[in-house]
Design brief:
The chain is mainly alpha-helical and 156 residues long. 54% of the residues lie in helices and 0% in strands. The chain binds iron/sulfur cluster (2 copies).
């Protein structure tokens, strides 16, 4: 699928540039993500190398509020798939996936985070799947069957 196919499939061409998506985007308040502008560019060019694509948290707020029914979040997810196929994905994602495979923890708790948790009166490490050998093994098998790591590494 090309970026032009994605624009058609998810109705990006219906966009009237009202800006409601940008105004309602929680990530845009804290980052450079400008959803309206991203939709505009995706209508006329290949945005698969753009960093903004990866700032979206896929919360779906923009898609729910778009007055023209543009499937913005669905399009962003598909555009990311296209970008990943070309090797244009942030390397932190591969690090997180490898962390999940190896420890069942995408971002293991660092000593700094443990310290903050302690100051907040929380347990040093939250209970999660990383504490169970049985669950860790399930994760390892899952990642083996998905072959996602091989897929991403082959494209970098
Ligand atoms: S809310 Fe919908 S119509 Fe308005 S700018 Fe965003 S995508 Fe376009
Ligand atoms: S789905 Fe992405 S672009 Fe849309 S509002 Fe949420 S963070 Fe912003």
């Amino acid at each position: 699928m090309t970026s032009s196919d994605i624009a058609l499939k998810f109705d990006l061409r219906k966009c009237v540039q009202c800006g409601k998506c940008t105004a309602s985007c929680p990530t845009g308040r804290e980052s450079n993500l400008r959803t309206r502008a991203l939709v505009f560019r995706a209508n006329s060019s290949d945005v698969s190398t753009e960093r903004e694509l990866w700032l979206c948290t896929t919360c779906y707020t923009c898609q729910e509020r778009c007055p023209k029914g543009v499937k913005i979040t669905d399009a962003i997810i598909e555009l990311r798939n296209l970008a990943a196929e070309k090797g244009n994905y942030p390397s932190i994602h591969l690090t997180a996936i490898k962390g999940l495979r190896d420890t069942s923890d995408g971002f293991p708790i660092t000593p700094e985070v443990s310290k903050i948790r302690s100051l907040l009166g929380l347990s040093i490490e939250p209970f999660d799947v990383a504490h169970s050998d049985e669950e860790r093994e399930k994760f390892r098998k899952l990642f083996q069957s998905l072959r996602i790591i091989a897929f991403l590494e082959e494209r970098k």
